[in-house]
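Let us work through a complete example step by step.
Step 1: write down the sequence.
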Amino acid sequence: MLESVNLTPDIKSIDTFDRNVELANGLETDYLRLFYYEFDHYYKNSYKSYEYYKLCTVLNGTKHIEVDDQEDFIHSKNEFVLLPPHMTISVEVQDPSKGMVFEISDILLERIRNKACHREEFECDPLERDRNPLFRRNMGIIQTDIEKIKFTAFGTSKDKEFLIDLYAQEMIYKLLNCMSNNIILEKQNNHSIYRAIELMKTACTNNMDLTEIAHAVNMSPALFSMKFKKITGLPPRIYYTDIKLNEAKKMLKHKSVTEVAYDLGYDNISYFIRLFFEKFKLTPKQYQLQFYSN
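Step 2: predict the structure and record it as C-alpha cells.
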C-alpha cells in the first residue's frame, strides 16, 4: 500500500505541481493515487515522479515535455507517458489542458509480476529501476482501462476504491506486457519486428510500403500486422506514420513542405499537413517558421 496520507474522499482538480496540493486533493486506493490536473492558463514548471512510477495521461489539450534537455515532445491524449521513480521533467502548458496521473504502488507492481511474469508474455522484467527511462506509447492498449478508472473516480459508487483497483490490475498487466515486448525488441536485433522497424526508419524516404516491408521480413501482410501490433501495441500503419512525421521535422529544416510531403510518399499535400498538425499541433509551415525564428 502507498505510504499513508490524508486525502479527501473525492478527487479534486489541481493547477500546480506542488506536492502538498497534490496529496491534499488526490484520491487514494490500495493500489493507486489518482491526481486530476486542470490548467486554464499558461503554466510551466518541473514535474517529479518521487518514489513511485507515474502514469501520465492527457484528457484534453496538450503539454510540452522536455527531458534533461535531450528529448522534447508534445504529449496529447493519443498517448500515455510512464515516468520511473525519482525522475524530473519540464512541463509547459500553453493552452487550456486537463490530465489524469496515476501514481502506482509497488504492491500492485509486485502483484502483477508475481502472478504473470512466469508466463510466456513476460520474458523479462520491464521495471528494472536502474535502467528504464521515460516510456511513451499510444493510448490504445490501455484506453479502455483509463476510461473505466476515470468514470469511477468521478462517480458516486460506494465501491469506488475497490473498482478502481480492479481496473488498475488489468491496466498494469497490459502496461508491463507492452514494456516487456519493447525490451525484447531492444535485446534481439534479429527479431523480425525489430528488423521491420529498422526498415521503416530507413525506407520512409524511398516510398517502401508496408506490404514490401512485411515481405522483407518473410511474412504475409496479415501476419505481419497481427505480430507487429502484439509486440508494439500499435498497428504498423500508425507506427510507420509516426516515424515518417518525426523524419518530416528534420527534413523541414532544409526543404519545402511540398518537397518533404513527396519525399515521404504523400501525394496529397493537404493530407500530409493534417497528419503533421494532429501529431505536433503545428502545421509544417508553422513549424518551419518557429525553427527559423529560434
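Step 3: interpret the result. The first strand starts at residue 13 and ends at 14.
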